[in-house]
Amino acid sequence: NAGVTQTPKFQVLKTGQSMTLQCAQDMNHNSMYWYRQDPGMGLRLIYYSASEGTTDKGEVPNGYNVSRLNKREFSLRLESAAPSQTSVYFCASSERREFSGYTFGSGTRLTVV
Amino acid sequence: AQTVTQSQPEMSVQEAETVTLSCTYDTSENNYYLFWYKQPPSRQMILVIRQEAYKQQNATENRFSVNFQKAAKSFSLKISDSQLGDTAMYFCAFRYNDMRFGAGTRLTVKP
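^ inputs. structure came back:
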């Protein structure tokens, strides 16, 4: 099925470990996004990529890095995980036109202990 | 920066009744887009309805409709004939360039 694929779906890390969340879309969308979802706070934008070759910070970028590998793939890296990064992470993609809603992946539940 | 406020953390409604979820936002922009997303327990984010700010007519999608008041910066979602499958978190979202979300309203439909 066409859409946004995130891996892994679940992950437990120890404080200080690093990991990369992978995201790929097959809808030929220009723009891709990473959000985190925390109880009572909705979804907050971490980083986004308006087009291949560009990335920009969102609301909560500290502690994260991203790579827009090509038009299809947009990865999120935690270099040194902290308990405050325990969250559910969503990748999304969209057409550049603002009328377009986002298509979301199924999320990654990350726990940092 | 744009902000989105959902003032109702939780709501409940009896099956077959109507419920309205509130959303307000703050922006200095004139042309933008508003969305409601549904997140069932499966965690998947599902687009429910969208509204263009330049359109005065309120959007409708089957049992879902919005009341868009641009001057008041208000964008509420009305669900008619509520069904058990409507039980979910509902997020209001504002898009100008990127998309910003409210904190969500947890809706429970009771049999």
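The mean pLDDT of chain A is 94. The CA atoms of residues 7 and 19 of chain A lie 11 Å apart.
thumbs up if we can close this ticket
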